[in-house]
Write a structure and sequence with these properties.
70 residues; mainly alpha
């Protein structure tokens, strides 16, 4: 069953939050930001935020969990 896509706009402060989590996760895990793994990470983070997860700690924990499966 495909996941339902949620297309809520990302506001500037949310974009800053996503960028911080993405940058930190990539740096800590030596992920090239231009790699397919980084792209997958970014897409999942954006989707999670659009579904209502806008807590930095929760997003960071999600990112670390995802890195373990990449």
């Amino acid at each position: 069953m495909p996941t339902q896509l949620v297309r809520n706009p990302v506001h500037p402060e949310q974009l800053t939050l996503l960028q911080q989590v993405f940058d930190q996760t990539c740096a800590e895990n030596h992920i090239d930001k231009a790699s397919p793994d980084a792209e997958a990470l970014a897409l999942i983070l954006v989707n999670s935020l659009q579904k209502g997860s806008d807590d930095k700690e929760k997003l960071a924990n999600l990112a670390q969990t995802l890195v373990g499966s990449l």
